[in-house]
Amino acid sequence: MTQDSYLVGLIGSGIGPSLSPALHEREADRQGLRYLYRLIDLDTLGAAPGAVGALVRFARTLGFDGLNITHPCKQLVIEHLDALAPQAEALGAVNTVVFEDGRAVGHNTDVTGFAASFARGLPDAPLEKVVQLGAGGAGAAVAHALLTLGAGHLTVVDALPDRAADLAAALNGHFGAGRAAAATPDALPSLLSPRSGADGIVHATPTGMAAHPGLPLAAGLLHPGLWVAEVVYRPLDTELLRTARALGCPTLDGGGMAVFQAVDAFRLFTGREPDAIRMLADIAELADAADAAGTAGTAGTAGARG
Description:
Elements: E1 5-12, H1 20-30, E2 34-41, H2 42-45, H3 52-61, E3 66-69, E4 83-84, H4 86-91, E5 96-100, E6 103-107, H5 109-121, E7 129-133, H6 137-148, E8 153-157, H7 161-175, E9 180-183, H8 188-192, E10 200-203, E11 227-230, H9 239-246, E12 251-252, H10 255-270, H11 276-292
Parallel strand pairs: 1-2, 1-3, 4-6, 7-8, 7-10, 8-9, 10-11, 11-12
Antiparallel strand pairs: 3-5, 5-6
Helix pairs in contact: 1-11, 5-6, 5-10, 10-11
C-alpha cells in the first residue's frame, strides 16, 4: 500500500510567487492525502545556487519524499544525485528529485510536460519546420519535446549565439544530424516568412510575463500560416497569444506545460495518478487570482520557475 502523507518542496531562486504548492496540494486534498509542499527559496535563505547540494542532503535527512528543482539549479543539482532517469540524462537537467530506497534519483518532467500539453492542445499541428525562441532552461526542455514529438527540423533562435549553437549541437547529437540549427533574432523575418515553409513558432523566453511585458518578436512577423505555442503561464493570455489569435493562428498557452510537468512530478512523488483535467482548471483559477492580486513576480515561465 502506498503511504498517505507526503513532504515535498521546490528549490530555486525567486520562487515566492510559484503556483506549484497550491497546484500540488489541491490535487492531494482531493485524493485524501496529507501533502505539504514547501518553498526553499535561495534568495530568502541568502544562499548561492551552489548550495543546492547541501539543501538536497538536508531534505533527504529531514524525511522529504521529493523535490522540484528550478532555476538556477537544474544543472547544478546533477552532481549531488545518485542516479538520473533517461530523460534527465539526455537533457542534462533535472527538475524533479525523488528519494527512494535511500537514493536520490533525478527526473525531468519539463520535457514530458510540454509534449503532453502540445499533443492535447495542438494535436493536428504540422511539425515539419518549427522555429523556437529561447535556448535557456525551458527552451532546452521544449526543444527536446518537439523533436521527440516528431518535428522534422527545429531552428533555435536566441540573442546569445553560443547558447543557441550549444543547444542545437546537443539536439543533433541526440536526435541525429540536421534536426536542429541555431540562429539569432535578426534571422526571424526570413525564418517566419510565408515562403519559408515554417509551420509554427514556440516561445520559450520570459517576455510576456508581468515583469517583462510585451512581444518577443515584431507582430508583423506573425501570419495565419503559423501556429503559436507559449511557455509563459503568468498571465495565461499573453500579448503574443492575443496577437496571434487575432490573425487567425492556432495557439497554445503555457498553462498546459505547467500542469503536465506537475502531473508527472506528483505521480513520481506519490505513485498516485493525478487528474490532469482538474489541475488544468486549477492553474487557470490560481493564475487569474494571483495576477489580479499583482503577485506575478518572476515565477511565470513553465519549466523555468516551477
